[in-house]
Amino acid sequence: EAGVAQSPRYKIIEKRQSVAFWCNPISGHATLYWYQQILGQGPKLLIQFQNNGVVDDSQLPKDRFSAERLKGVDSTLKIQPAKLEDSAVYLCASSPSGVTDTQYFGPGTRLTVL
Amino acid sequence: QKEVEQNSGPLSVPEGAIASLNCTYSDRGSQSFFWYRQYSGKSPELIMSIYSNGDKEDGRFTAQLNKASQYVSLLIRDSQPSDSATYLCAVNIRGFKTIFGAGTRLFVKA
After folding, report:
1. Sign of the dihedral defined by the CA atoms of residues A50, A52, A55, A61, in that order
2. Contact at 8 Å (CB) between A73 and A25?
3. Mutate to test the interface with B, among A105, A109, A110 (most CBs of B within 10 A)
4. N or C: which end of chain B has fewer CB within 10 A?
């Protein structure tokens, strides 16, 4: 079974530029999560999708971050414009049905904002 | 009070010893509890999940849950250098969302 795929693996941009990350969850997994993990901290949930609907985006900075999950499969997270404090690893995870399930994480995208 | 708290460590134990990792949570409605291991530069991977009070054992790992005291722990027996990693406690809040703790760094000295 293929795992969660993410791209790119690394990205370096300058502040005020835009960036997009892509995630393809495990086949058949209904729930998809985007996390931000700053060095030395635990993952912080940005947005959670159940199929193609948003369940929780309370911690998503909506003035600059956006996410979509078209057709309930893969997802894109965008930052526009980026700030220095957005430097982090962006993790995508998926679970079979709901939040009580085990989450399976992708390899992450390491973003550096200069 | 943070929703999920862990000692940041680092916790250092000699090879072969028992490592004890603790986690407390604030919401009594929490339903599911998870321990993830994260090696440096890698993504988290599940070690154990526990849903009811008591102990759950899987090989060298034992998860312990006490809902009355609102804590969950992870014991690693016969610790190996390969167990050196950050251990993340994750708590599902009322079936709605999962909150991760900041993690405890574990070093196992050979």
Report:
1. positive
2. yes
3. A105
4. N
Chain B: give the shortest CA distance to residue A111, in Å.
Answer: 13
Contact A56 B97 (CB under 8 A): yes
Question: B44 and A44: CB-CB below 8 Å?
Answer: no
Candidate from A32-46, A75-89, B93-107 with smallest mean pLDDT = B93-107
Contact between A56 and B92 using a beta-carbon 8 Å cutoff = no
Mean local confidence (pLDDT), B75-93: 96
CA dihedral for B47, B52, B58, B63, sign (positive or negative): positive
Placement of tokens 């998926």 in the chain:
A94
Give the integer Cα–Cα distance in Å for A61 and A112: 18
CA distance B87 to B18: 15
